[in-house]
Amino acid sequence: MGDSEQNPQLREAIEELQQYLSDTLPPLVVADSIKLLLKYPPQIVASNIHAWTTAQYRRGTEIPLSDYLFHAVKKIQLMGEFRLVPQEPFVKYLEGLKSHVLGYCPEGDREFLKANLDRLAESAAGLSSPVEVLFRQQGGAGERPLATRATGSTAASAPELLGLRRVSMVLERLEREVLRHPSAREEVKKGPLAAQALAAAARASKDASEIDHILERLRDIGLDVGTIDVLRSLGTSLPGWVPPQTAAAAGAPPPTPSPTVQAIRRVVETEDPAEGGRRFNEMVKTAIDRFNEGALPQAITMLELAERIIEEKKVDPVVAEMVRKRADEGIDTERLRKYAESPDQQPLLRRMLNFFLALTPEGLLAHLRTEMKRERRRLLLLLLEVHGTPTRQAALERLNITFGQGAGDEEWYFRRNLLYLLRRIPRPGPGGLDEDVDVAVRHAELRFPAPLVKEAIANLGQLKHERAERTLVGLLTDLETMLSKTGEAPYDPREMRLLLDRVVAALARFGTPGARRAVVEHALSGKKELGDTMSRLAELAGQDLSGDEETIQKLLATIKANTPFKLFGLVLHQNDRNLYYCIEALSTTPHPDVQKAFREVVKRLAGQEVAKSAEKALASFEASAAASSASGESSAASLSGDLELFGLPALLQSLSDSRVTGSLTLRDPNGEVFGSISLRGGRLGACRTGRLTGEEAYFQLLERPLPGSFLFNRLPDAPADEKTPLKEILPLTMEGMRRYDEFQQAAALVPDDVVLKPTDVKPTPHPDERDGILVKDLWSRVSPSATPRQCEADVRADSYRIRRLLTHWVDQGALVPAS
Asked: Are the CB atoms for 588 and 544 separated by under 8 Å?
């Protein structure tokens, strides 16, 4: 013990060894201490094992002292088994350690302990803490259990040790890559192998301290990596889908967090508040990076985890508030605009926006009030529209606040934008129309700034309410009166004529007989001071006026009055412009009298622009009639787009929620079809990709997502085929995402291009794999040294099942990577 007293490093290593034997420290944390102890004679460790055994052993218990000695040696042997220490010196050291430990064993148990130590490598057991799990020696007839809990509690399972071994294998492969390319460490750090290693290590670690130890180990070999690199690796490996919030709202239990999400939490949650705050900030930054790279679902997964961490008070509230206030500055505004402009992406985007205080409805409205740049205002309005109902409610509350003539320009422009939002965002239910009308009427007074009045007029034109119609007609009359008089008016004549344009357009869109007649009467008034009143008739184009006989006859009378006629052999032309505008107004009204009048115009004015307009309208009438009588057997594409923008899982969930029937075709960037999915009433009918069909094909499309495009052809609903049972999309997708997550873990241990070779160990099927033909077929492919990618191409099963079997065989030693 003299050496340990004089050497602080050795003393610290022995202390860590004692804690490791009592399961206070995990293997990864003490790996460096064990490496140090290998440089000293084995009797140092043996004497400390004896000291630890003496402290643990209690006379009168059923557990003999020799079992504690065996347990200690077994735990040290595991360090080599899981490759946490150099193999060659460790094997020699372990043999010396065994002989020294035997000297501390009571004579009656010495031979029994020696026999068990000799076959130590053959044993396998679970491991837990202070010494709650004790590795027991095996008798000839198995009279002793392999492991016993000293406290009598439940035995620990082996998955933790298995995960540790997997991490060691991945880290060893990364170390070899660094040694192979010492001058390209930065490239290795940014490469897929490093990302896989960091993600695998984080998933297998129990807490942040184990992750820190792994980072130290990587820094020792020259890779300058930190927690931000771990978070990026985990973020990249997250599934490209998040469960819809409707499932939780319907009372469905929340899905179990994936191992990757749990690993991210372990990275962030530390005992040091300052360090925890720093890592929390890194996690949010990583989420923003994923968003900027087009991975919106992955960003949402991380941000919703951040919200849970805040709710559970696992991070300093001051730090969390600061991150939520400032982190949005790193968001790519063009990417934000792209998602906001896609209606299918808006529900997902809304979930992301709500994390950042500046991007909530309240935060966006505060910015909107003072924003001077037009492009920035347009983006703010777009994001407010994405929020939907909360924005609408907030806008109504602000518009209901009393205002007056003396309000500043900032207030008027702000209110104008709020009115625009009310018009753009639908009411959440059948109620609320009266409140919208009240707000629009109060802002449509001809004493307020013209831009604000124009916005209020546009809102009135959208509100199908008697009061809205009366207000518009009243505005039309008031403006006509103001322009007809030379007295003082609130606006200049040009501005008032622009307001007239807006009022007439709003009345035309209103669609009631009274509103249309007001438009026609205004147009036919012909008062020069009102501007070109006849041109405003064109606002009626696009409506079928067939049910409004009075309006039709007035317009036809105007057409007749302005159609050229002969007098004493001379052709007398009337006003061609008036004729043109009347034809425009009736161009979408296939009334028999209208068609007759248009034919007369074509006959009399053949070759002229007016006749061409009439001909175009007549052709449109004929095309509409032919379309309405068609059988509708052919079907055009209902939806198409970019798979990277939509994401296949989110797209399928959207189609499922809509309960549509149709066929979805998936194409790669070269235009080649790589998958097809048939939906009936929003449920899965059939699926195909490569040689796979049905559910397995569906899972494969989610496990191995590919870039490209999609085309959805909507088909008429048809009776269900009893021979083809339909499957709900949501449970299938959740299972597919679970497989995706586990596939990522397996791919870290057994990458696509690794060459595997068989050993003398006999392979066994995975406990969850019941297809014996698949097991046999896969072994016949992989045993001649095929790579996992080649196996996936040759074996008829989805990637997850294939990789799960290969990983299982590597775990049990039936396969090893070729050096």
From this structure: yes
Q: Is the dihedral of CA 603, 609, 613, 616 positive or negative?
A: positive
Which tokens go with 673?
């079809």
The total of other beta-carbon atoms located within 10 Å of residue 49's CB is 24
| Region 125-146 average pLDDT | 43
Q: How many CA atoms lie within 13 A of 798 on its CB side?
A: 25
292 burial (CB, 10 Å; 0-12 / 13-18 / 19+) is middle
Nearest to 201 by CA among 743, 739, 745: 745
Average pLDDT of the chain is 85
Residues 116 and 104 sit within 8 Å (Cβ to Cβ): no
Closest C-alpha among 122, 128, 203 to residue 813: 122
* Local structure of residue 358 (DSSP, 8 states): G
pLDDT in tens, 81-125: 777 788 778 888 999 999 999 998 988 888 888 888 887 755 443
Distances (CA, A) of 812 to 422, 497, 766: 64, 85, 10
| Tokens matching residue 653 | 């969930």
CB 361 within 8 A of CB 387: yes
pLDDT in tens, 219-271: 877 788 889 999 999 999 898 888 887 654 445 556 678 889 999 999 999 98
Residue 547: what pLDDT?
85
**DSSP category for residue 478:** H
Which of 24-33, 159-168, 523-532 is predicted with the least confidence, judged by mean pLDDT? 159-168
For tokens 């008036």, name the residue.
578
Could you say which DSSP state residue 526 is in? -
Q: How far apart are CA 45 and CA 52, in angstroms?
A: 10
Domain locations in the chain as residue ranges: 2-157, 162-171+181-227, 550-627, 637-730, 750-817
pLDDT at 634 over 50: no
E strand segments, 430-522: none
Which CA distances in Å does 435 have to 236, 417, 461, 510, 700? 47, 17, 15, 18, 51
Coarse DSSP helix, strand, coil percentages of the chain, rounded to the nearest 5 percent: 65, 5, 30
Strand partners, 710: 641, 666
Q: By three-state DSSP, how is residue 709 classified?
A: strand
Contact (CB, 8 A) for 702 and 684: no
Query: Do 170 and 196 contact (CB within 8 A), yes or no?
Result: yes
3-class state of residue 567 by DSSP: strand
Q: Where are the alpha helices (DSSP H) in 154-258?
A: 159-180, 185-190, 192-204, 208-220, 227-237, 245-249
Q: Is 607 exposed, middle or buried (0-12, 13-18, 19+ CB in 10 A)?
A: exposed
Angle, alpha carbons 159-161-163 (nearest 5°): 70
Q: What is the 3-class SS of 493-527, one letter each residue? A: HHHHHHHHHHHHHHHHHHCCHHHHHHHHHHHHHCC
β-bridge mates for residue 639, sequence order: 712
| pLDDT at position 13 over 70 | yes
**Cα angle 557, 558, 559; round to 5:** 90
Q: Is 406 exposed, middle or buried (0-12, 13-18, 19+ CB in 10 A)?
A: exposed
Angular region, 326: left φ>0, alpha ψ -120 to 50, beta rest: alpha
Taking the C-alpha atoms of residue 128 and residue 767, their distance in angstroms, rounded to an integer, is 24
User: Distance between CA atoms of 102 and 100, rounded to whole angstroms?
Assistant: 5
Torsions phi, psi for 598 (to 5 deg)? -65, -40
Q: What is the CA radius of gyration of the chain?
A: 38
Give the contacts of 293 (CB within 8 A, at least 6 positions apart). none
Q: What is the percentage of the chain residues whose pLDDT exceeds 70?
A: 88
Whether 780 contacts 790, CB under 8 Å? no
pTM score, whole prediction:
0.76
Strand partners, 563: none
In the predicted structure, residue 29 carries a pLDDT above the cut 90: no
Cα distance between residue 816 and residue 802, in whole Å: 16
pLDDT at 632: 44
